[in-house]
Amino acid sequence: MRGVEVCGLTIDSPWLLEGDDPLLVNGVDVRPFVDAELDRRFPGRELREASDPAGLRDAWAALERAWAGTLDRVAAMPPGTTDERVEGEWSFAETLRHLVMATDTWLGRAVLERGFEEAYHPIGVAHTEFAEDGFDPAIFAESAPAYARVLEVRADRVAMVRDFLGSVTPAQLAEQRRNPWGPDYPETVLSCLHTILGEEWEHHRYAVRDLDVIERRASAG
């Protein structure tokens, strides 16, 4: 865009900070400012690119603290909040279910090299486009689980990552794996773990964003 008047513009993209191309506003690359502000708002996010076992454990612990605070916030909100959608996005419960699927994909399926049936929990939620490349959405048979059930499975997957990081070694982090969505593209155990951390922080941001909207709606009503 050149020579335009911008008022009330909202850009919300998980890929804003990826790649080498800048996002220029009047000649200034604003991506570093956005990244720094997100780190300020979400303490611990800055650890998501840790590259050694101790750093990864610290990164996961910070993430667990962030989610614990958000779960407490949701528990104090009115009944039905966990199933409320904002502008067609996933509800809070669906977000947690998607993160179950993401953990099953990048830890269970990729890092631990489990088969489909072994890797995936039926409570998971996947993007519809994942039906391509041999992904069978019928794996997710529990389409409307109770929120308590979601919390139980989510806690199990959080513990699964924590336990793996508790014993991982530098040599294991360097091991090669197949990308679960593109088998021709090599990954390492470390890059798979970085994908999990990235998914977690992005979806935490989405969840907080939508909870803010839900609270504003309630106060306005």
TrEMBL record:
Protein's name in the database: DinB-like domain-containing protein
Gene3D superfamilies hit by this protein: dinb family like domain (1.20.120.450)
Recorded coiled-coil stretches: none
InterPro entries to which the protein is assigned, alphabetical: DinB-like, DinB/YfiT-like
Domain (DinB-like): residue spans on this chain: 62-206
